[in-house]
Amino acid sequence: MAKRLLDFRDRTAVAGVGYTPFTKDSGVSTLTLACRAVLAALDDAGLGPGDVDGLATHRVGDSAAPTLVGPALGIRDLSWHLDQFGGGSVSHAVVGQAALAVAAGVAETVVCYRAINARSEFRMGGTGRGLPASPEVQYQAPYGLFAPPQQYAMYARAHMLKYGTTAEHFGRQAVTQRANAVKNPRALMRAPITLDDYLASRWIAEPFRLLDCCLETDGACALVVTTAERARDLRRPAVLVSAAAWGGGESHLSGGPADPTTTAAAALAPRLYGRAGLGPRDVDVAQLYDCFTYSVIVQLEDYGFCPKGEGGPYAASGATALDGELPVNTHGGFLSEGYVHGMNHVAEAVSQLRGDAGDRQVPGAEVALSTAQPGYVLPATSALILRKD
Amino acid sequence: MRPVFQVATDRDSAPWWERTGRGEFAVQRCDACGRARFPARAFCPACRTERWHWEAAEPEGTVESWIVNHQAFGAGDGEPYVVVMVRPAAVPDCLLHGGWRAAREPVGGERVRGVFTPGASGLTLVDWEPAGE
């Protein structure tokens, strides 16, 4: 167990959120998207670029680095910056690391952003894109396996075989999230869908249909992280960062348990809850990384909201709907709002805790869980627990 | 048919691919603790020893999962193809992938046998077929 070196819980806060519109073709560079989202988040907080001394992002060779965005906004000296390599699994790690930097005093006001043209330039789903530069690829790509929907479909079927999870379970979660997106003016997909619509959507990689998959999106999202004290003096209600956690455990490579039906979130969750001094029953609203319907199902289990193997029936019961016991992906999620690779989950959690989520507001929401991609091929994930001040 | 992807092997994996090229399904075995591992790496994940030998194994395993791909993610003719996830009998604490070589879909848990197949980048791939059919 790591020694406790830093008093972290509730010492930092998210003071502002900003978005660009979500589209299928932004028509601008990722640098422009990043600048727009950063400025929007600062404006939300009542701050300007002159107040910023830290910038953080993650990317996979598809976006603008903090050391490019800073000068583009006339920020002359970044006392802290983070250019994390990685995809969705590190999305929440970026915010957690920014909060750590603020808590440690090496920066006071950090803007975290993710800016992508994930439909018009670098297709996140893998279509038409080159192979990632990773040694594992050589054992998969020659067989026609490399795109994220294929990888997750493989895990989804393993879960179906082991636990009896069904297409209807996946479909119910897709339908629930679309109903939330109907109430979200920012969402790309706002037409309601039924289970029959889900079942009639075309195959991508069986057992996944089109409506199991998130939306390849052009857009950016940014968050302002600062000390709790400073956030309380700013324009918007402060949303406290109660806990951040990093971790991983499961892999299909030799040396791991090689259980394709469990994710790295199972190892991370106790650490995350422990740091917040909370448990799954304290969570009022959860933004669970939904690159695919199945990733929601498996995280409902691995974050302790239902017993292992029962994520499908739990989601299909209506428990994850806006009026259910655990509203999940209240903005519509990546399946229906848009996919900014994780950052828009954190932003929605902030909105719910500030009480400004409009028609999709969860009444009385005080504690939110927001999670990163729970790990595939190589085990890694990250997550945050945020709390109303 | 599956699309053709050119992939790069590396200094760890070259001996594995050399062996598949000879029609051999080999695993790395730790010289110190005897544990088998896949894919090829220098250190034993159990005892951290950096000495090993290659050992021929039967290309046998069981089906853990599979997909039927429809989306044309890469260059290909767009026809659906099946990729299986196999738990190899010789290294049961890992999962590996391969093409499916049968007219029917796989069945969860069924026993399968490796089939050596010429592939892209001059590599010999290991596909899988039902054992004993």
Give the topology:
The complex is a heterodimer of chains A (389) and B (133).
Chain A: E1 12-19, H1 30-45, E2 54-59, H2 66-72, E3 80-85, H3 91-104, E4 109-117, H4 148-163, H5 167-182, H6 195-200, E5 203-206, E6 208-209, E7 218-227, H7 228-232, E8 239-247, H8 265-276, E9 285-287, H9 293-302, H10 311-316, H11 333-336, H12 343-354, E10 367-371, E11 381-388
Parallel strand pairs in A: 2-3, 2-4, 9-10
Antiparallel strand pairs in A: 1-7, 1-8, 4-7, 5-6, 8-11, 10-11
Chain B: H1 14-21, E1 26-30, E2 36-37, E3 52-56, E4 60-69, E5 81-88, E6 96-99, E7 111-118, E8 124-130
Antiparallel strand pairs in B: 1-2, 1-3, 4-5, 4-7, 5-6, 7-8
Account of the 3D structure:
- The complex is a heterodimer of chains A (389) and B (133).
- Chain A has a single domain, classed as 3-Layer(aba) Sandwich (Peroxisomal Thiolase, Chain A, domain 1), CATH 3.40.47.10.
- Chain A has 12 helices and 11 strands.
- Chain A has helices at residues 30-45, 66-72, 91-104, 148-163, 167-182, 195-200, 228-232, 265-276, 293-302, 311-316, 333-336, 343-354; strands at residues 12-19, 54-59, 80-85, 109-117, 203-206, 208-209, 218-227, 239-247, 285-287, 367-371, 381-388.
- Chain A has a 9-stranded mixed sheet with strand order 3-2-4-7-1-8-11-10-9. Chain A has a two-stranded antiparallel ribbon with strand order 5-6.
- In chain A, helix 2 links the parallel strand 2 (54-59) and strand 3 (80-85).
- The longest helix of chain A has 16 residues, at 30-45.
- The two termini of chain A are 29 Å apart.
- Chain B has one domain (14-130).
- In chain B, 6% of the residues lie in helices and 37% in strands.
- Chain B has 1 helix and 8 strands.
- In chain B, the strands form 2 sheets. Chain B has a 5-stranded antiparallel sheet with strand order 6-5-4-7-8. A 3-stranded antiparallel sheet of chain B has the order 2-1-3, with helices on one face.
- The longest helix of chain B has 8 residues, at 14-21.
- The interface between A and B is large, with 41 and 49 residues.
- Chain A: Keywords: Transferase.
- Chain A: This is Acetyl-CoA acetyltransferase.
